[in-house]
Amino acid sequence: MEMLKNMCQMEMSFSKYNELYDVLIDKDNIWREINENVDFSFVLENLKDSYSSDMGRTAEDVVRMFKYLLLKSYYKISDKELIRRTKTDLEFKYFLGYDVEESNFIDPSLLTKFRRNRIKSAETADDLLSKMLEITVKMALDAGVINLKTKIILDSTHTLARYGKLSPREELIRQAKNLRKKIYEVDKTMKEKMPKKRETSGMLEDMNLYVDELLQVVKQDERFMENAGIREHIDYLEETNDDIKEALKNSEKEIPSEYSKDADARTGHKTADTSFFGYKNHLAMTTEGIVTAATITSGEKNDGNEMQGLIEKTEETGLEIEAVIGDGAYSSKEDLEYCKDKNIKVASKLNKMILEGHQSKEDQGYTYNKDADMYVCKAGHMAIRKAKDKTGSKNRDVIRYYFDVDKCQTCPFRNGCYKEGAKKKSMTVTLKNPIHLEQAEYMETKEFKELYKERYKIEAKNNQLKNIGDMKVAIGCGQLGVIIQGASTLFLTNIKRIRTLKAEKKEKKEEK
After folding, report:
1. pTM of the prediction?
2. CATH of 135-157+266-348+447-507, one of 3.30.420.10, 3.30.420.280, 3.40.50.970, 3.60.120.10
3. Strand, coil or helix: 331
């Protein structure tokens, strides 16, 4: 580890021109704030097993390589464009630790290799993600914008796989078509110089070869390489083609290439009628909007199964959780018992199946009206009241629904339903577990209702992460790439949120 630190430490700079950074990089610049407040030594510790201390050439600075990933995520640019901008952008140079006059930069291929080969597993990426969130939580605590004892809101949002609706072959066809279109806008005669299309073969390998030939042709023409718009299309197509080749080379499954998709992505369901192909980002967030924990899974995973892990990751940041807020996915028997043992309140509404349990055999056919919170009989008559009760030899907890007996006496469906002469008619629903009965009672309290009002905040955060951040569509292929993408986005989103909270706190103090 010590040798790795020596290999990867940025050299102390004595350039006389670096004083320009103090003049040109604002004190409240986000990259200055990160540099001044974040100790990136955790990257060295996390990636120590990815480097050999006695083999190969000296490694590029690990921290600097990791910072490149943050810039790439924030600005959503290709590896090549990132290195090009670093040559002229003082913000980039400052954040990466280069001298103002530095002109010798890494080759873009090294950044690509760093993403693919140094962060080797989803577990390694997940550790990085947790550490980055832990750092931002500490920053928020130090700034006094969140409390040590806190409430957290749980929810998930999805990230579409890069190759969800389009296979890798179709994606290459799309990008190649867009590149050709841009080139023809500059020079229509280029149509005669383009390589022969191989799109109709149906084989991914043929498209890989075609893209190689296309790139070779257009990169030889300086007009296109000097055109920023076309150059970015070239870079993205080349990066996509290389990523697909790498994914196929490392794939453990032999999938027909013409049908291959992201092997880690799965189909998940947002509602009974809508689905997506990709990943789920399971999040825990304070009510102030600071993400404290995240777990990124394939799309089919159940939200409730991630609750305990999110709580444990949040506790590892040093926060003490008083309450958990979430939708019905977080109200399983196991989760409620887990939180009860930890003395954590759960503001999660029981869904109908959990709350109401099972109807008795003779009462099959009654339907539940969620708006009225009552059952309706076969004739369309709604229960007039309900009460908790005990029933059966096992003295099980039930909710008993009572109907208007006057209506039952004249009902056309009374045979087999109403016993002639009975003074009351009721039907029962057995509650599944005592812990759910406790939760049902808690749902009626003022405390629960006040806590549950906070749940909307995480929906706004999910919208921000997807539409303003970088988590709507995967920029790479595979779960590992999605976790790296999520780590960068969540880290930077937390930094920006802390800045906003600090500004609001300062403004309130000045008003007083």
Report:
1. 0.70
2. 3.30.420.10
3. coil
